[in-house]
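Duplicate of #3305? Posting structure anyway:
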């Protein structure tokens, strides 16, 4: 069956599911590159497991960018997202060159998806890894930090990017991390920052972490400077349970952690907020292998498991997850994780999905079976505490000066403008 026919069959299946009966409305994008293949495979497995999904298909990504939408999404697609509040998204391709905005960043900001959740689990000995006991969840703040994207050209030689950290943002993500740990039986939450250098921004994140940790005496907590924390994550990831961190560190280290499990291609991701949620694989669209029926749909399928849990369908989620684990355990592997002597059969995208469907109702015997209850996700999205208005006092101003002279010459010029209102205190040079 070619891809066009397969997608048509999938669309027909969607139409059949668009009917009453308690189905969860879900907005689905087939994406670019390998996206249509792995999305069709993932949905086929989920439907076979009894998932109740009322699907609305939208087009986002490369074709939409090329049509003149700089964020890669149309008004009609926004209408669907706001209506369903659940987005199941295959990877997309962002065109090279300037003028194109990140679709993910746009959606996260527009829908307030402040929490990025990435489980990073090893599946040894069936997927090769140096860390067979690894089972880490990285929870990353999704809206602030350097990803606010506020940059300035200060001079012809100097550019600036602003790092924004807010107390409400810190409170939401830290509390979500502790609520997630409690809902999923996790024992410890670790915070990564660089507050020995960035004492105000990362210092605020660390301080809020310590404040909120006191409200969860049943969960252990600790803190690590991000560089030594990253080193420990790379060498002994099994010592971590849940890690919470600001946006940039989380983006980098969640990819590192996923690769440590044995394959970044197995990594799922959830983006959660008060007004919606988005579920996707963490890998890209891999256009170089598109249409060849060799892509591994596991990352997207496991993101679908997270979506089913979020949507209140824990039984279907467990059925899919256990059948997937059984397939991996039986050595039915796609080319990216196939290894002679460990794997038993190399299969393509469609055959891998069929193998999972054949194992629905079964559980793995070596890997740990899963069971999901209603508390597998936090009961509610945390809200920041009421804003405390503090008195404001002007203590100084910062002035940016473009000068090619010496510091002494600049200081002399500035001192000429000193008065009873302003006084030169410091000059810092970049």
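Output from current build:
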């Amino acid at each position: 069956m070619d891809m066009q026919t397969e997608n048509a069959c999938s669309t027909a299946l969607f139409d059949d599911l668009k009917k009453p009966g308690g189905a969860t409305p879900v907005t689905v994008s087939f994406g670019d590159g390998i996206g249509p293949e792995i999305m069709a495979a993932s949905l086929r497995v989920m439907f076979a497991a009894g998932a109740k999904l009322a699907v609305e298909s939208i087009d986002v990504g490369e074709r939409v960018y090329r049509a003149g939408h700089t964020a890669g999404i149309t008004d009609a697609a926004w209408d669907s997202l706001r209506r369903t509040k659940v987005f199941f998204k295959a990877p997309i391709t962002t065109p090279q060159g300037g003028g194109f905005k990140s679709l993910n960043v746009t959606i996260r900001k527009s829908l307030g998806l402040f929490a990025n959740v990435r489980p990073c689990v090893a599946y040894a000995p069936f997927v090769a890894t140096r860390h067979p006991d690894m089972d880490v969840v990285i929870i990353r703040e999704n809206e602030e930090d350097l990803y606010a994207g506020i940059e300035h050209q200060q001079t012809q030689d100097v550019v600036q990017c602003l790092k924004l950290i807010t107390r409400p943002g810190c409170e939401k993500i830290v509390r979500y991390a502790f609520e997630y740990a409690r809902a999923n039986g996790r024992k410890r939450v670790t915070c990564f920052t660089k507050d020995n250098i960035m004492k105000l921004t990362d210092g605020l994140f660390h301080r809020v972490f310590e404040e909120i940790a006191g409200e969860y005496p049943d969960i252990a907590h600790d803190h690590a400077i991000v560089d030594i924390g990253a080193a420990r994550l790379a060498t002994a990831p099994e010592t971590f349970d849940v890690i919470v961190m600001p946006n940039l560190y989380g983006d980098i280290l969640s990819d590192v952690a996923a690769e440590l499990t044995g394959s970044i291609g197995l990594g799922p991701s959830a983006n959660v907020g008060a007004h919606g949620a988005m579920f996707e694989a963490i890998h890209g669209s891999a256009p170089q292998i598109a249409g060849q029926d060799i892509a591994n749909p596991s990352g997207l399928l496991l993101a679908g498991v997270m979506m089913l849990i979020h949507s209140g369908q824990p039984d279907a989620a467990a059925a899919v997850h256990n059948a997937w684990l059984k397939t991996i355990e039986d050595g039915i592997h796609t080319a990216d994780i196939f290894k002679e002597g460990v794997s038993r059969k190399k299969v393509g995208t469609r055959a891998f999905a069929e193998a999972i469907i054949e194992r629905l109702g079964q559980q793995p015997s070596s890997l740990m079976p899963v069971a999901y209850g209603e508390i597998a996700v936090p009961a509610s999205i945390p809200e920041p505490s009421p804003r405390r208005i503090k008195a404001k006092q002007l203590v100084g101003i910062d002035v940016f000066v473009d000068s090619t002279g010496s510091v002494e010459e600049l200081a002399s010029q500035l001192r000429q403008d000193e008065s009873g209102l302003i006084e030169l205190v410091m000059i810092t040079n970049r």
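Confirmed duplicate; merging threads. The radius of gyration is 24 Å. Confidence is low (pLDDT under 50) at residues 1-20.
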